[in-house]
Amino acid sequence: MRSLWLSATVSFLGSIVASTLARRFLEDRIAILGEWVGLTLSFNEGIAFGITLPGALESALILCALVLVTILALRSAHTRLSQVAYGIIIGGALGNIVDRFGDGLVTDYFQVGTFPVFNVPDSAITIGVALLLLEGLSSWKKPPRS
Questions:
Q1: Would you state the pLDDT for residue 6?
Q2: Residue 38, beta-bridge partner list
Q3: Measured between alpha carbons, how far is 113 from 110 in angstroms, rounded to an integer?
Q4: 3 exposed, middle or buried (CB, 10 Å; 0-12, 13-18, 19+)?
Q5: In the β-sheet with 37-44, what is the strand arrangement from edge to edge?
Q6: Over the stretch 118-130, which tens digit does the pLDDT of each residue have?
């Protein structure tokens, strides 16, 4: 389980550092690939894709999801890849939760096309889920040919 906790720690710290830097230094949009990709400061009061729920319900759902993912990780992360995947999901989720402290807003800063602006924790969660899907798909056994 060392890989799980190490990846969770790295993901969490990376999330906090990136959000802190964005809040402190990102004033105007910085173009990376013209209008298509850039860094732009945005604040999100909702959960995924800006969906907002009443405050207490939103907080309860976020906490329940984090607890469930952690339990699932502790019970089913048997490979190094699954431990890393769960770890970066947990670290990203914690990063967004901590970023929300104080003003209730999550700091977003990556802009790609017309996709909603997102951040390092969102990316960590997405990459972790993708790794778990890839591992699941690669472990499927093909039926024997007759």
A1: 97
A2: 31, 111
A3: 10
A4: middle
A5: 30-33, 37-44, 106-112
A6: 999 999 999 999 9
**Secondary structure in 3-state letters for 4-62:** HHHHHHHHHHHHHHHHHHHHHHCCCCEEEECCCEEEEEEEECCCHHHCCCCHHHHHHHH
What 8-state DSSP symbol labels residue 77? -
pLDDT digits 0-9 by tens, 39-80: 999 998 887 766 777 777 887 888 899 999 999 999 999 999
Residues carrying an active site annotation:
108, 122
User: Residue 78's CB: how many other CB atoms inside 10 A?
Assistant: 9
The dihedral sign for the CA sequence 85, 90, 93, 98: negative
